[in-house]
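hiii, so i know i said id send this last week but things got crazy w the move. better late than never?? heres the sequnce for the chain we talked about at the cafe, plus the structure i predicted for it. fair warning i was half asleep when i ran it
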Amino acid sequence: MMGHTKAFATYRDLSQAHINFVVLACYAVPALRPEFSNLSTPLLHQPDHFKFNPESKRELAKYANSYQEVLARTTVMATFSYFESYVREAMSDVIQFHGGVEAFQKLAHDRAAKFIKRLQPDLEKSKRKLQCARQSTCDQIKPAVCL
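okay and structure toks below
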């Protein structure tokens, strides 16, 4: 029996990191709104990876008004993407757990063969008798029924 897979741990960590970012954004944007609203003063803290432009404050104020919708949409997309990756990796982990691709295919084939196994000749003949009381009638109606 498999416990949690490595894929699940990765999915859990990535999803949690994204939730942590959402929490940070939900604290940061309301705190920055007053700074964006006063267009005459410069920002107290310059951005990390963007060149600051005084006209940016107006745009940032617009972004701050709809940040919750954008954040919700990106959270759904990111979490779904993480889940999609998790499913692929989990399937890969299950296949490796069962001995690799060839062993897993053989296991699946052998299991399916148990259910598709042909009947012994005497049982098959008895089955035909039950299915088609008169062979000639069966042949006329549908030959595929009496195998």
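btw Residues 6-116 form one domain. thought thatd interest u
miss u guys!!
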